Amino acid sequence: MNNYKDKILGALLGAAVGDSMGTISEGFSPEFLKKRYSGYIEDLLDPTDDGMTVNAHAGMVSDDFSVAYYTAEVMLEARSKITPELAKKGLLRWWEHPEYTCYCGPSTKKGIMRLMDSAGQETPDTELMFNNKLVTNGAGMKAGLMGLFNPENPQAAVRDAITMCSLTHTNPLSLAGACAAAGATAAAFGKGISYLELIQAGIACAKEGYELTAPHFGPLAGGDIERRIGLATEIGLKYQHDFEKAMITIADTIGCGIYAYEAIPAAFGMIAATKGETMPALIMSVNAGSDADSVACIIGYILGAYRGTGSMPDKFLSMIDTANDFSLEHLAEGILKIVEEAANDK
Amino acid sequence: MTSELIKQRTISSYMHTVVADALAMPFMNRPCKILASYFEHSGSPLNLTQALEGSPGEGKKVGSVTDVASLGSTILSYLLRQNASINVAGIKEALVLWKDSPFTSEYYQTYAGNATRRGIDIIQGAYEYTRFDKVPCDSRRISNGAASRAWVAGLMNPGNIDQAIRDAVTMSAVTHRNAIALSGAAIVAALVSSALVKKLTAADVYELAVSCAKESYKYAESVIGITSVGSKILPRLEIAAEIAVKYRHDEGKLLRDLNDFVGFGNYTSEVVPAAIGIVLAYGQDIKKSLSIAIAAGNNCNKTAAIVAAICGADADAAWLYDQYWDEVCQANSCDLRGVHKQLMEA
């Protein structure tokens, strides 16, 4: 498990960096970004005041990474892998941080309101039975964390991702996306694994996640996560030689929007396009705009774990820690301890 | 083609669109997988029936239409009454009329999407601007509301494709200032305009849709002056066409792949290419193409209306008169018979 620590820290850093860089470009088009920045965004930058960010500065993350950060924090305090109770506690702790919760998406907000209600009286759900607007990527953006608690064990990561994410995302498509992200992150710890095998793990885990959750949660309409990851990967492989073409084709064809069946397949397509290289994939997702912070965060977990901290510039760790008052290294050590204790228990 | 025949085709297109909306209304939002087993037990989708539990139209009369036919008819009727071509002031007045009239306000209340509501609020000075309105790219008005009523611009311009495109953009930019949404509207208008004056082959439909997707996007962007964020229509159209060719003899697989890869959701880049995919595969048989569009669920009222507006121009309307038209007219408070009469007298 010697190299696990660097991989865990790499994943946390990759996800935080992806989120922070993507926060700058979220809501913009690739063409607009290229013009505004006279090229690609490749660094942690201060956001402009006409974007989606609120009072942020270089290195600050948004909801994408922070919700996982606070969930990890409560797991470390409990010295435990995820449980429904810890998932709930993590969400509620995150909810105490308005600097991050201001980015909260519709499914997460609905889930938290439900959790807060459950302390008092249940309120009847008056929404539509099939509200397809809830098939969002909020589960996928945070689920990579569960891969870190289950290195080299994608099946366990799938189960934990469902436990973590089903409080807020009660539909099989969002959860399939979460399982793809978590499973690929767990697979990234394997020795000698190729980036294509990472993608295959993501596809297999999306399928497993869908099958595990479909009997329990009402299905919602939307594109197929597993098959769209396959299509995105095809596009990525086809344009490996042309960064710009790959980015635009994935953004235009698959989409990098808020729906799980766009953002999650796009992340895998970009991993394929960049041969699983951390920074090129992060830069591609950030400069594709739209829901860039979520796509980049998902990529950051997977490739940060795959390539480790050395695949990103040294300065990023201190920038992220300082901007958010985090200690990613402390978090990584705590996660490793839980992983080791779980292994010893076996 | 004589002007009398063009008039007949215009009326046929209109009636098919209205009836398609009413036929699809009960199945809105449901995933196609669930509807597949529903229709296995309950027969053809081409029956007027009660809205399924939990769908937006639950509790409405059998034969009720949605925003698609009610707003489209209101706009069409308003313009015919004024003896006017499509113009911004007229569209604004028709939108407000649709929202506030006692005969149509229930359709607004039940079905109007965010972009349409926002557009009407702006017209009425009731919109509260937020910081997101400062973002110089648009990702929030990519929805399919504009495309779903753009058949009006087609009906107003039989055979004049260029004018139909310009009118679709003029008409739609009031609510959907997003080049992707406007381009989708332009494609629908162009196809309807063309279908009114000639029998379209699949090759005609594909060529016109592709050329219009390319041209209208640029035109729309120049009209609204901001770039748009999101998955694009052209690449999804190409995927839809591939699926249509592959599964032109297998309705089940056509529907599955259009859902999985293209989508029937609320983005314009889903419904417009998916509807055209159905037209490409089964456009010569309106009953079959409408059945598929309705069985798609999700935003099936919009998919079905687009399919019907294009294919309906060339279809024998007898089955509509016999089975559905009277019942649909009786079920609705908006004056569908009046619009029909206006078209007859135009």
Parts with pLDDT < 50 across at least 5 consecutive residues of chain A:
120-126
Query: Biggest interface between protein chains, with counts per chain?
Result: A-B, 37 and 40 residues
Q: And the CATH topology of chain A?
A: ADP-ribosylglycohydrolase fold
For the largest beta-sheet of chain B, the strand count, sense and barrel status come to: 2 strands, parallel
The H/E string of chain B reads HHHHHHEHHHHHEHHHHHHH
N-C termini distance of chain B = 17 Å
Number of helices of chain A: 17
CATH level-4 homologous superfamily of chain B = ADP-ribosylation/Crystallin J1
Rg of chain A, please?
18 Å
Q: What is the arithmetic mean of pLDDT of chain B?
A: 95
What are the secondary-structure elements of chain A, in order, as H or E?
HHHHHHHHHHHHHHHHH
- Shape descriptor of chain B: globular
Largest sheet of chain A: none
Proportion of residues in β-strands of chain B: under 5%
CATH architecture of chain A: Orthogonal Bundle
